[in-house]
């Protein structure tokens, strides 16, 4: 059982995932990992959770000096930097600690659970620094990645524009060549960047913007499509101490995630913002995409963490709130609501969603660490759209259930569960919406190159075999394999269909595929749990909880796969071919 | 198609439901109905929609004088009263216009769509006045119902207490006899009432509280359970002009629905609040429950309306927002996102949810009007938990999709869709949570007295027969009847099960039952649409839209029935029997 002291994630569960299931000790010193996790849990609770409400009510503000954010955010990130957590995942030669992504992800989940908006700053900074470290010149790495790895400067990703959200081909930010210096090919950038998280703030020494822009051709026109996109480093403050030509045109007022200043940035309102090209022209999208798996797993992980904390909150509330009596009992004192079957059903659904989401993201993080192995990379590519969307949709579902368990109290801002729900609603949108992920899964990852499917199938079959050898899990695996067969049959039908109709129901396909993947993730966990030494009572309860959650997922969730595939298999074009006038 | 001028609900759709489908002209003058609907749409847009954002950002405040609400709310309700809408559904001898509940419901849906928090005041006032009119003495009706029917005073329902939410047996408010006067048996009330919507405000002349309380026995103790509950009228200002002993102990700060002041009220902090008994002692719960069908339909209707407006907003946005290109096209100008199959799928899901919810609630409203007919009353009792929950869950799902279609913009407070989502999240909670409705459906309405089931089955079969006679609908009805058979088979299994385990999965059963009911509601609409005169193009498009939404519901939603029944049929007690320590 989650301990009363587990405010963010269950410590036992995190250990279970890292050690018992994913064997992190094979590649990393187990004690180091545990120390990092304990440190993260403590820092997150002390310095991130403590201003969760405050960062919601005191939104970032904008004046002539720029954007001001809640001072506690800066203080929290100071502690994060002091603990070396900005540097954790980077190579030692860059000032990092060379920890595997899996350990970093497990650490990060605690901060996201405590305060996802504050945690967004280091998440973006790490992604930014990692990109520069991977593709920048040594001088660029020294000048722009190192201060971020040290946690002194923060970073942003400037992709979207007001007219270019999901479709980056629409980008109009223009980069004019402006000579060369020790930091590389210099350009002058002009354009408007929208939805820039951490686009400005007053807590870091500098802000390193990574800007996607197009270099005009000889005719002065911007190239069409995404092929002409290049990536530029445009710091808020230039190396000579002067302000770059980047200004905050406005703040977006969001429903949640409010502590993360989200800006409309104008580049080059005056002479053009100075930006140094990363790598070669035209490589921008490829560079971004090489970071995309990690970024999308981080989004999924944040969503999982938000769902997870709401599970722990409702578990606690359900044990404290007295209301009603057991079925058939009319008199006597009211009981804690956890004794009502419907509340317990909701809690077990939350557990299946939250723990399943976390386990999936940690599994994918392990695949990131295995990037030398082509099979692992292929499997990671296939699973990434699921790691992004499933926790975003079902972590949110766990948040929704948390409100329901809290009843009227959960609808008030006196409790945290409504804010967790609002915060999490961003996750199905940013870093590629669910619809975009569905196209990615079905198009790029399956129909264009289905080579990863057999790898996943082999994983499912191996888990099934292990499960069937365990008495208390018998009977589960066949329904998972049956669901997988339904997916395969559906794909066969889709591949026979004209391409322009194959994607009409890509999203229901993603839902079905995601549930099968989660069935497998739950079976993996159940097998691992069943093999634990259960002589101690707490271990026995923990293992039983995992197995019950797995069984609940198979009873109540897996049957939905067939329902979603109905529309896909029927090749229903009811929506896609509906004349606009019929809506 | 919904017209661009339809900001709240589609005028054509409301007319379709009222006239083409539910034949309101059989009982009420059609022109009068249309005039009321047009007036409602206009007033709602001019005076309710206009302060939608303001009522969210300027929450009610509390000072020594009591609760202050946004002045525009009072102005809007003044227009509502001037138009006679408080009086619409009441008998002429009470100063009303004797309109059927169906017409009142269709009118009300516009106000809920425009501003559900402002609309809550007249909804509660009507329910309060209706209860007094039904059970109060002539003097009570004169003193307390009439001013509400005139829209001069507003009313509240004081049921919940901090320790008594879903379980009214826990109520501790105490009513001590205090003589008798021309308004009836007088009592002194003492207790705390929680979650009181409209519990205080500064826009109506008086506030009539209907208070559920217990009369202590000779031993001074309050009776156990709900049998001892009685209902009292406790106005804020007494007939002699003195303030009653009712004070506002606090305001609840909600996530949404913020314009509705939601209070913790203390009754009798000094000498006891004066309250007059309605009817006889011990009849409180029965009286409340006789109003419950209408109150629950009104909640469902509000939820439907919130979902409906979010559908219209995303339909408009999807036609204006340019982004991306059709499948396989790489160059050229971006297209409106409504041209993308996934957006169209989302819109059709919204249409199925929103129009289906509205249609269900209006159907139930018609059953309210047929209260003289026992079969209609039995059917209404059976359908009420669905009318309460289905729109609450799927109207909310439509709100969620609206945010997704708006992308990042939908997550900001510059647009309305995020507020519609926050507002609607209350509806699965108040007036009986989804879990409570599930117990009501399965326990009280089906297992205890299954006599309404054959009535519903006959409705389904009749609709199926009509549908099968129409070429373009052929093939739909059998899947609905099959889903119904699955429900019946499941009930057979449940009735063989020990009572204490029969309710473990009452909520998944409710979901399954609800989807079958909605399948039928959609088939009813499709049959009606198919029979419309479709010679005019707009009519043809309207009818095709209804039929496509029906088909989409059958393709994409109805298959979920089998998935939900899986857990119920398996008699899964995985959650219910899980030791607390395993969570």
Automatic annotation (TrEMBL), chains A, B:
Residues 75-152 form the Acyl-CoA dehydrogenase/oxidase N-terminal domain. Belongs to the acyl-CoA dehydrogenase family. Residues 157-267 form the Acyl-CoA oxidase/dehydrogenase middle domain. Pfam families: Acyl-CoA_dh_1 (PF00441), Acyl-CoA_dh_C (PF12806), Acyl-CoA_dh_M (PF02770), Acyl-CoA_dh_N (PF02771). It comes from Alteraurantiacibacter aquimixticola. One of its GO terms (molecular function) is oxidoreductase activity, acting on the CH-CH group of donors. Residues 462-577 form the Acetyl-CoA dehydrogenase-like C-terminal domain. This is Acyl-CoA dehydrogenase. InterPro entries: Acyl-CoA_dh-like_C_dom (IPR025878), Acyl-CoA_Oxase/DH_mid-dom (IPR006091), Acyl-CoA_Oxase/DH_mid-dom_sf (IPR046373), AcylCo_DH-like_C (IPR036250), AcylCo_DH/oxidase_C (IPR009075), AcylCoA_DH/ox_N (IPR013786), AcylCoA_DH/ox_N_sf (IPR037069), AcylCoA_DH/oxidase_NM_dom_sf (IPR009100). Its cofactor is FAD. Keywords: FAD, Flavoprotein, Oxidoreductase. Residues 282-441 form the Acyl-CoA dehydrogenase/oxidase C-terminal domain.
């Amino acid at each position: 059982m989650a301990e009363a002291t587990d405010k963010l994630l269950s410590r036992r569960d995190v250990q279970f995932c890292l050690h018992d299931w994913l064997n992190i000790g094979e590649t990393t010193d187990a004690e180091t990992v545990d120390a990092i996790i304990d440190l993260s849990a403590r820092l997150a609770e002390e310095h991130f959770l403590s201003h969760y409400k405050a960062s919601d009510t005191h939104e970032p503000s904008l004046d002539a000096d720029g954007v001001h954010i809640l001072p506690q955010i800066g203080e929290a990130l100071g502690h994060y930097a002091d603990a070396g957590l900005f540097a954790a995942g980077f190579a030692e030669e860059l000032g990092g600690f060379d920890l595997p992504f899996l350990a970093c992800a497990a650490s990060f989940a605690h901060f996201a659970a405590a305060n996802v908006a504050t945690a967004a700053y280091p998440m973006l900074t790490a992604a930014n620094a990692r990109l520069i470290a991977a593709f920048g010149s040594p001088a660029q790495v020294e000048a722009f990645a190192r201060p971020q790895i040290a946690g002194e400067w923060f970073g942003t990703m400037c992709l979207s524009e007001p007219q270019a959200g999901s479709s980056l081909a629409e980008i109009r930010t223009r980069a004019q060549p402006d000579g060369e210096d020790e930091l590389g090919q210099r350009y002058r950038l002009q354009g408007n960047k929208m939805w820039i998280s951490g686009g400005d703030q007053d807590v870091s020494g500098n802000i390193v913007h990574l800007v996607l822009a197009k270099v005009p051709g000889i005719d002065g026109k911007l190239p069409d499509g995404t092929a002409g996109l290049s990536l530029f480093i445009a710091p808020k403050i230039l190396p000579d101490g002067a302000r770059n030509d980047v200004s905050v045109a406005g703040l977006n007022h969001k429903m949640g995630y409010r502590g993360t200043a989200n800006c409309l940035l104008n580049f080059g309102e005056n002479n053009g913002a100075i930006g140094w090209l990363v790598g070669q022209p035209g490589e921008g999208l490829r560079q971004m995409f090489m970071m995309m798996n990690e970024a999308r797993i981080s989004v999924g992980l944040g969503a999982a963490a938000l769902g997870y904390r709401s599970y722990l909150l409702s578990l606690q509330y359900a044990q404290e709130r007295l209301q009603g009596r057991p079925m058939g009992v009319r008199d006597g004192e009211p009981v804690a609501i956890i004794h009502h079957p419907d509340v317990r059903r909701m809690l077990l659904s939350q557990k299946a969603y939250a723990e399943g989401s976390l386990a999936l993201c940690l599994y994918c993080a392990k695949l990131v660490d295995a990037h030398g192995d082509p099979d692992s990379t292929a499997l990671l590519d296939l699973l990434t759209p699921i790691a992004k969307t499933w926790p975003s949709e079902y972590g949110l579902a766990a948040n929704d259930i948390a409100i329901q368990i809290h009843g009227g109290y959960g609808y008030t801002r006196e409790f945290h569960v409504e804010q967790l729900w609002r915060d999490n609603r961003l996750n199905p949108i940013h870093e590629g919406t669910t619809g975009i992920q569905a196209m990615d899964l079905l198009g790029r990852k399956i129909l264009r190159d289905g080579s990863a499917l057999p790898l996943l199938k082999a994983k499912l079959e191996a888990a099934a075999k292990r499960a069937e050898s365990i008495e208390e899990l018998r009977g589960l695996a066949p329904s998972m394999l049956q669901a997988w067969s339904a997916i395969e049959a559906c794909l066969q039908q889709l591949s026979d269909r004209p391409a322009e109709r194959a994607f009409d129901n890509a999203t229901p396909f993603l839902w079905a595929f995601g549930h099968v993947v989660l069935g497998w993730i739950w079976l993996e966990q159940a097998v691992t749990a069943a093999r634990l030494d259960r002589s101690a009572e707490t271990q026995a309860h923990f293992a039983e909880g995992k197995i019950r959650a797995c069984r609940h997922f198979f009873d109540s969730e897996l049957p939905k796969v067939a329902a979603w595939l109905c529309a896909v298999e029927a090749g229903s074009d009811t929506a896609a071919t509906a004349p606009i006038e019929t809506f």
